[in-house]
């Protein structure tokens, strides 16, 4: 019982840190402002008067990973050269429960040094990832993890409920370490009318994407977990409705952390603009272009977008027109701006498998033209 309470308190702690550190709307979560990036919790077994410098060095490294998005930041920059005395940047230091220390560092001072060293800093506004996790226990009990408690969909109770909560704890901690905002679904009546355990377990993209629409996210992580570790756990990611397989492994907690780390790299590659002056290129394919007027409307819309420097028509075939767009914003902002058009509807290609080895997981955006005249 004590262990169960300990797990519950840990989960509440991670959720509280996450919520305080983000400006969250309960449902509309396209992106959030991460305000707790410069506060970390570190395990400690020393007294406050006996704290070693290594504690401050570890806190600095954790924060640098969050604000640059680079998990191996120590291989990219000489941390000790840039920050020879991390203790000087401490704004707040306090001992908290469970032998931990909460340390807050000076964001302005750290960012000034990074900018002078030409190190790019990731914006605090970051896209939210919605996480659907279906868990099978003993082949009988089935559970969908929710934003509060797990929802049991069959069986009397999940025999390894503590383990299931621990999975949630690990995921929150891994996401917090990488500075990635996440949330779990409500799994309320509204959700359960749109999606079932079988839909998640079977990886049915239509149902997953449809049920996720109420949360207004473009990044969705799906986990199919067996807590017997006899068969593989499957982790799948949807970005802009394109599907990519992240990882297949038996080990539960390790695979969940690795899935978050891969997710973080994908988010970083697609939403972190490394060079604000670099002109990016993206193909935009629009189907349903059956008239000169429809082409004119699309061209007029693209011309009105301040974030697009220029565009050209690359090809016309059948009812499809392919444009090449030139822009200097991140792909997320470009995609959302195009999606804002009342005349364009995003095309969902659920079965397209994406290679996560490339820096960008897609080469083009695909939309269809909605002719309002019937």
Give structural attributes.
374 residues; alpha+beta; Alpha-Beta Plaits; 5-stranded mixed sheet; 36% helix; disordered N terminus
Describe the 3D structure.
The protein has 374 residues and is of the alpha+beta class. It has 3 domains: 38-123, no CATH class; 126-271, 3-Layer(aba) Sandwich (Rossmann fold), CATH 3.40.50; 280-369, Alpha-Beta Plaits, CATH 3.30.70. It is built from 12 helices and 17 strands. The strands form 4 sheets. Strands 6, 7, 8, 9, 10, 11 and 12 form a 7-stranded mixed sheet that branches. A hairpin with a 2-residue loop joins strand 14 (308-317) and strand 15. The radius of gyration is 23 Å and the shape is flat. Mean pLDDT is 80; it is low at 1-28, 158-162 and 350-359.
Could you tell me the CATH topology label of the largest domain: Rossmann fold
Largest sheet: 7 strands, mixed
Order of helices and strands: HEEHHHEEHEEEEHEHHHEEEHEHEEHEE
Q: Return the domain count.
A: 3
| Unreliable sequence segments | 1-28, 158-162, 350-359
Structural class: alpha+beta
Q: Total number of β-strand segments?
A: 17
The CATH class of the largest domain is identified as Alpha Beta
Task: Give the CA-based shape.
Answer: flat
Q: Work out the helix count.
A: 12
Average pLDDT level: 80
Question: Percent range for helical residues?
Answer: 25-40%
Please tell me the CATH architecture of the largest domain by its name.
3-Layer(aba) Sandwich
Q: What is the radius of gyration?
A: 23 Å
The portion of residues forming beta strands comes to: 25-35%
Distance between the termini: 64 Å
């Amino acid at each position: 019982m004590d262990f169960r309470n300990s797990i519950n308190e840990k989960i509440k702690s991670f959720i509280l840190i996450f919520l305080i550190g983000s400006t969250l709307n309960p449902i509309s979560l396209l992106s959030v402002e991460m305000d707790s990036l410069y506060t970390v919790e570190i395990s400690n077994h020393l007294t406050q008067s006996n704290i070693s410098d290594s504690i401050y060095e570890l806190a600095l490294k954790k924060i640098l990973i969050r604000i640059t998005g680079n998990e191996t930041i120590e291989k990219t920059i000489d941390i000790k050269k840039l920050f020879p005395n991390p203790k000087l940047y401490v704004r707040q230091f306090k001992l908290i429960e469970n032998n931990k220390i909460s340390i807050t560092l000076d964001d302005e001072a750290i960012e000034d040094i990074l900018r002078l060293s030409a190190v790019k800093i990731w914006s605090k506004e970051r896209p939210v990832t919605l996480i659907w996790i279906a868990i099978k226990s003993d082949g009988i009990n089935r559970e969908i993890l929710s934003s509060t408690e797990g929802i049991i969909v069959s069986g009397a109770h999940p025999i390894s409920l503590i383990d299931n909560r621990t999975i949630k704890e690990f995921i929150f901690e891994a996401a917090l370490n990488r500075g990635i905002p996440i949330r779990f679904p409500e799994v309320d009546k509204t959700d359960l009318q749109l999606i079932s355990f079988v839909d998640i377990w079977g990886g049915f993209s239509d149902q997953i994407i449809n049920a996720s629409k109420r949360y207004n996210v473009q990044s969705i992580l799906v986990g199919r977990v067996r807590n017997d570790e006899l068969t593989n756990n499957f982790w799948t990611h949807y970005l802009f409705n394109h599907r990519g397989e992240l990882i297949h492994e038996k080990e539960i907690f390790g695979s969940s952390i690795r899935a978050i780390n891969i997710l973080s790299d994908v988010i970083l590659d697609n939403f972190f603009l490394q060079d604000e002056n670099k002109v990016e290129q993206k193909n935009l394919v629009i189907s349903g272009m059956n008239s000169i007027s429809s082409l004119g409307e699309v061209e007029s819309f693209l011309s009105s977008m301040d974030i697009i420097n220029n565009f050209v028509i690359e090809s016309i075939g059948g009812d499809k027109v392919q444009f090449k767009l030139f822009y200097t914003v991140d792909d997320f902002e470009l995609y959302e701006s195009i999606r804002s058009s009342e005349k364009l509807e995003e095309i969902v290609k659920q079965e397209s498998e994406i290679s996560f080895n490339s820096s960008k997981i897609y080469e083009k955006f695909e939309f269809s033209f909605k002719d309002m005249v019937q």
